[in-house]
Queue: 3 jobs
Job 1
Amino acid sequence: METEGVPRLIRLLIQYSVHYEMVMTASDFFVRRTGAILFNIEWVKKWKYLIIRMFQTIFNWDEKVTNFPNEKAHTGHSLSLDVG
């Protein structure tokens, strides 16, 4: 799994949420598992690309599915966080 640069706590949160809480997307993780997109947007902005890369590795997504800078094409939820 591609985890370079991702802190251990975040890796463990992702692994647990995927295996035990049926989290399927990074937006699912940010909204439902951590609530960070609502309460800690700076944390999401800091880690979103590495976390999305981890989900890409876990679920074998190609670049079309990942669709940086937002994953709306795959999930229906936008993670584009260019808001001031």
Job 2
Amino acid sequence: MTDSERTHGTDPASMSTRDVEKRWRDPAALRRAALYVVSAVGLAAIALAVFLATGASNVVVAAIVPGVCLVGAIGALVIGYRSYRHGGTWPIWQGAAWFLFASMLVSLSLPTLTVR
């Protein structure tokens, strides 16, 4: 094993050690994940504003809000998996995905507002 493999985390033994110790610090990845979550929540808020502006009577428009959160969460998991495969800080992206999944569950009540 070369020094480059040890420092860049391409050695399988160093990757498993890094997974166990949980002392990751990657401010750049945290900023990217936070920006990703804020943009996904912003798009969901715009969809919510459209839903409320149309009179809260269209089921399809109401389903867009949880749909945006679901697509954002799946996207965060994909980015997290890619980060894991490259030896990066994947738990940041997993946390972003869990937040977006929770937001999706909360917003799933919107389509029920259209049924009167």
Job 3
Amino acid sequence: MAIGLPAVASAAPSSQTGPQPKVAPALPFPVPPAIPEFDRSFYLPAKAKYRDLKPGQLIAARRVNLATLSVLPLNVDSWQVSYRSTNTRGEAIPAVATVIKPRGKAKRGPSRLLSYQVAEDSTAQYCAPTYQLQLASIPGNLTGSADSTYEGLLINSAVAAGWTVVIPDHEGPDSAFAAGPLHGRITLDGIRAARNFRPLGLSDDVRIGMTGYSGGAIATGHAAELKASYAPELNIVGAAYGGVPADIGALVDLANNNAASGLILAGVIGVSREYPELAAFLNKHMNTLGHALLAGKNPLCLTYQAALAPFLNIKGLIDLPGDPMKYPTPRKVLGQLKMGKVTPEFPISIMQSNPDWIAPVGPVNTLVKTYCRTPGARVAYTRDHFSEHITLAAASFPAAMVWLDDRFNGKPVAKGCSTFDAGSITLNQKNWPAYANLVGDNLAAIVGMQIGNPGRR
């Protein structure tokens, strides 16, 4: 089904029989977890520890205590794993993920693994889900961050369904926000790491689903496109994602002088961390205000990224005539970030707000059309007309859960593409039980009940 080639060659698959690191115990409550920037031995181990490993092989592991809203302990089994991944230049890098399963003994056999990509949308490691999901972590945004509050509730519901969940820090060790091809590799290697981690008890043929919204859709979409060449051994049965930044250049165009300019400028910073040629271009051509904003926005989580410098003329920060995005270096990098180079070989569900004010619908329409030109493509595309970017994030998750549950159950998907224009995705009665479960699962989690049943996996 390939209609293009990824930027780097296929990576050798990891082995489930690989060496297992000694699992360190969790810190006793109320000792707070170490902030990643100061926890370098786990987040940034010496290169000698991972350079000779295969992608997805484990470097270290430790138990962790997770919590809803950082203060309400979760009754689950949870660990952090560090593993070897690959950057966009083909170099070995360390990566970290949280893995969660319903509490209890894991048995090998039919099982389900969900790779959940959080919309971290940030430029500092203390914003990453491995830190923010922990008990007694310091919230990255006092007004609530996608990873530590809202999306933690969604992850709770996935575990309550009996699924094992892996949540990668897909931005990597440099917090390279919006660098999609990097995010895709870290996501796929996070799935490999979860399969390799014996305490999860995952079967060799575990059925794997992927999901993510907005910044999480960047990672999910690129992982879906890279899977065939980078991780062909993985049994991915479907991916459901929404609020899709299919073309980062279009996001910059839309955000310029508009409310989302602060968030999108953070994406420019993140991409420059993975693409040195773009960093050199910005350093050479940015004006004084641009350099000041880049310095100020370097260590911030999502909410503060969005709040700092809204309605900014992003392109005006470059001291060059004309549109700076049309110069060779930005054009080349933006081309590498654009989705649509390879059609995923498994079914995908894409949900998009038609009046989305952050990730415009036009490039998503184009992406779907591109995929659907490939014989055998299986794409279900839903455009929601009564939502916008933020409200669809909440409305689309139960629909994604229902769709992924069908894939886990082996319900066949007809070849071909479908586009459905919904007034509101919330009106689909098939999804209503999932909305009720989302509320009930989190009420149970808040009072300390065990989340999920390992026998259901």
